[in-house]
Amino acid sequence: MQLTAPLDMHLHLRDGEMLDNIAKSSAQTFSGAIIMPNLVPPVSTKEEVIAYKNRILNAIGDEQFTPYMTLFFKPTYDKAFLESIRDEITAIKLYPAGITTNSEGGVSGFDVEELRPTLEAMSELDIPLCIHGETNGFVMDREAEFVSIYERLATAFPKLKIIMEHITTKESVAALDKYENLYATITLHHLLITLDDVAGGMLKPHLFCKPIAKRPEDKVALLKVALEAHPKVMFGSDSAPHPREAKEACGCAAGVFTAPIALQVLAELFENENAPLENLQAFVSGNAQHIYGVKPLPKTVVLEKKPFTVPSSYNGVVPMYADEEIAYSIKEIIYG
Ligand code: DOR
Ligand code: ZN
Hints:
This protein is an alpha/beta fold. The protein contains twelve helices and eleven strands.
């Protein structure tokens, strides 16, 4: 099985030692990825975007991989600033304040008029807006409650591309077909698990993430649009590494580390669900190319059906399926 130019449209690469330790997990197999800006402090100036991109390029060494950079949304960005940074970024990421890891500087309240100058300028400059769509309501309802905010923004800025990041609910899936300018990323883990897998038995900290995995019917809705490669849906792993100590702790950090096994497990999932390979290809690359207008570096990942035992950790970060066997292995990467 071959996948051409796989793209991960939602990835956390972190910084410093963690960046150096985990960047290759993505760069070896993916052609490129949208890089999240939730560092401490968040990536919010042109200098920070360029410097972070250089640190990423340094960490990936010789790998052929494009980091598509993002900026941390602030309602104070004006058009002149956005024009000056346009060529350095692929999107801007909006976090509600305090909703997840390092999002304290995000947006509080979603007053359209307050956001209008920045969002209008983004719309004119054709800068996509990626949103972590959760309210601060009850944890299982946060995303469904946020759909009305997506709808308000999609209506107020009809030319702005809005990407509902890491959707986890049937309500978000339904919103996709109602608004022309709404798109979505879906993670690997939300196609595989529900809240039961996280907390139904012994608590599984390595499956704890934001948004939290939801109900079986939500997973069914996500699987449907992923397996049919709905043209407004893209793969975005939200692979979010934390050191083992931060996950196996009394205050467990949110994030599932899937980068090293994502393509192999997607291959297994699509095969088990009898979805055609061309749909997987569209889900992991073609749809994103259309939506974002990116032209990824040529790279072909050859997968073979050969059991692979997932390591218990990658430099101190525990991956999904640690110590378990998955059905596919990476056989070869063909460049060019
Ligand atoms: O589980 C998550 N981890 N969700 C997010 O939105 C952020 C991410 C992280 O940065 O750790
Ligand atoms: Zn994320």
